[in-house]
Structures are given as structure tokens and as C-alpha cells.
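New to this. Look over this protein:
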Amino acid sequence: MLFNSFSFIAGFLPLTWLAWMAARRLGGLRLGQVTISLASLVFYGMWDVRFLPILLGSITVNFWFGRRILAANRGRREAVAGRWLAGGVGFNLLVLGGFKYAFFIISNLTALWDMPPPFGPLPLPLAISFVTFQKIAYLVDCRRGRVLRHDPLNYLFFVSFFPQLIAGPIVHHRPLIAQMDSEANPLLRDPRAAAAGFFFFAVGLCKKVLLADSLARFASPVFDLARHGVPGGEAAWQASLAYSLQLYFDFSGYSDMAIGLALLFGFRLPVNFASPYQARSFVEFWRRWHMTLSVFLRDYLYIPLGGNRRGAVRRYLNLFVTMLLAGLWHGAGWTFILWGALHGLLLLFNHAWRGLLQRQAVLARAWRAVPGLVPQALTFLGVVAAWVLFRSPDLAAASRMYRALLQPRQGAALAVPQWAAPASLLESFLGARPEAGWLWVALGLGVVWLTPNTARWVAYDPTPNQRWGPRPGMIMGLSAGLLFWLALKWMAIRPPTEFLYFNF
């Protein structure tokens, strides 16, 4: 079931919200927690019920590992707790690796002997990457003494809470469970949270169905053509920019909808995007893009590897390894690995450049005199170039795309297919000519460069148990209603499409 479907908006969501409110009134937050946890399992099972036992089995095993770690902590058996933690992390990585990476590894090994792999790709359980990271973080938090109540219902709710179950944001146990205290969580009694939640959901829905899905039709045909031939230079540039914007609006839209849905139930989720395409360096980009993943990689991988505590060379190596594994986390393929390696190199260059500016005062003064649009444009173009690897189906297609980008006068032209029927007068105008792709790209760039992100519009504070800030006013309400109406109009014409990060 998709957030951007009528079955979710008109069926699952209102029924779950009414059941949540009734359970809270009849049995308090504990019964409400049971209700929303069961609804979340139904939500997950409606994708593919075959994977529900895998999710529940993994939850059970991880809860058991957490209990063993906490028991060893209480007995001050540090070595035993460490071994239980290693066992739990190993179990999660084994499950993730078996489903996501086994075929990739075996197929590459058998290719060395020119043999076919003994089995095909395994079906990938939905959300396995995000859920695995959350469960690993929980076990590490158990070892560090940050889990105060190891309760089975709390743990089930933490892992399965449906707004963030499929594609994040990656949340931590303690801040989410702390919000189950009705005395400490003011949002459970504040109707303004629901109003802001509706605004978040409407904005995210528009990002997905109006912008991301519209941009996809100018990106996908060109990348598909690159499987067998070199596309035209203009088509390649348009597709690269269109995909960069499609991916942003698709994933940012999901994250906005997740925050909005959580607010409707009285909970806060962390912000995942802070206008990343406005970043003026690659370091800043990763502090703004998929922020919960960046924090996870920093806290649970980069710092345990040594961080920046063992000299510059080791720091650069740790950073590169972290980004390499970040690429592998996104997908089992050489394009994802090289995408992570490329971002690792870009970050190394960024840090080296900062170090040079600190040592060379004259160069630093000259760089400060450069208009901010220059580093912003250079960062954006570097990110777009890396997305070509991320999107390409294989290395050969990526090579053809790069060739087209560097040789714009060569390659095959491509006619962009039209929609079967326009969803509105605006779509009729924009979709009437092949050059409409540039209009959609310009619209997308205008949104990401010139408008504030959704959290800034609402002055959203993701800190748990803080009182709501500004009162959602008439302008916000009218804007949310208009955006929601536009999104529904688009949805009535086109079938719902999956979010891109469902594949990762």
C-alpha cells in the first residue's frame, strides 16, 4: 500500500486513526500502542504477506539479543555484553546480506570462471535496509546503556511504526518511545499538531505525484536508451537533471509524508532533508541530504572506525570506507559501490580544500570573495554527475551517459512519450512538446533553490516532548488544501508509483 494511493488516503489512514483515537479513549496509550502496532503490521503485510514472518522473526531475535546485552550490562560483564552485541549485529548483517547481496557476490564469483550462478536473485523484503539499521542502532544503544525500558510492545512499536517503516527516516528507540508518555508529550493533546501534519502530508504528496512522477518521464527513457546506445547530449543532460530532481522530490516527499502522518498520531519524527541542493560543499550536502542516514553512518560506523582521532590519513581512509559502505547499503551493484566511492573522493577533496584554505590566508580571502552561487553550482553539478552512476542500470550504461554528457553533439535523439491524458490544463501545456522537459527541470530547480523546505515553513522542531511552536494559520491551511486537491487531481489520472527508495 502506497502513501500516494486512494486506498491508503481514503481507507487505511482514516480507519487506523479512528481506531487509535478510540483505543486511547477506552484503554489509554498502552492500548493505543497495541492498536497502531497491529495496524502497522497489517500495512506491511499488505505489500507481501510472505515477508511478514521474516519481519516478526527478526524483531523477536533482536529483542532477545537486546535482553542478553542488558543483562550482561547489569552484571558488569563487559566482555559478555560485547559478544552479545557482536552476535546481534552479525545476525542482522547476515539476514541483510543473504537477501540483498548473496546473488551479487555469487554472480561475480562465478563470472570469473565463466559459469552461471547457481541461483537467481532473491526477492528483497520491503524495508529490510532501513529496518536493519534501526535494529542495529537499538542493540548498540543497549550496549551503551541508552535503553531504559526493554519492553516488547515498545520495541514492536519502535520497529514497525508505519509512517517510517518502509523508507525512514531512521529513528532511535529512546526519543520515539519517550513520546508514549502522555504527560510529557504535549502533541497528544494539541490539535495544532494534526493541522501541521496535514500540511506536511499535502506538501510531500505534491512532491511525489506532481513533481517526482512528472520528472521521471524525462529521465527514465534516456537511461533505458543508454542500455544499448549513446543518447543525445541534450537528452542526457536533461535526463540527468530530471533524475536528480526526481530522486529528491520522491524521497523528500516520502519523508515529509512520514513526518505528517506521525504528527497526525501525535508523534515527532526527525527531519531527513534540509534543502541539500542549496549546499555549498559536499560536506554540507551530506549534512542536509538523508540526514538520519548520515547521522547513523557517523555514529555507528565512522566514529567506531576511529573518526578523526588518529591523524589525517586515517581520517580520510575512515571517511572513504564509510561512503563506500553507504553506496553498498543502497544497492548490490557496482554502480552503487562506485557512487559511494565517488562521493568518498569528493568529500576527501572537500576536506583537503578546507585544510588548504586554513593554511593559505591569501587563498582563503580570495575564496571568500567568490559569490556563493559558484560553490553551490559546483557542488550541485558534482552531485548530479554522481547520480548518473546511481541511476544507471549497469556500468556500460553509465559510461554511455557520461560520454553523451561530455560530447553533447553526438548520440541518438529521443522522443519523450506523452501521457495518455493530461491531468490538468497546466499538464496539457507542459506536456505538449518534447522541450517540456526543460520546463519541468526549471520548475524543479526553482523549488529546491528558491523555496524553504517544509520543516522551515512550519517551524517544525523534531525534538521530542517540546511544545508546538507557531500556530498553524489560515495561509497554511489554505495552502495545504490547495496542494492536497492538486495532488488528488493528478492521482485521478495516473496510477500510483512506488517510491524510489523502496528499491534500496
Notes: Residues 6-186 form one domain. The chain has two domains: 6-186, 194-503. The CA atoms of residues 236 and 405 lie 6 Å apart. The two ends are 17 Å apart (CA to CA).
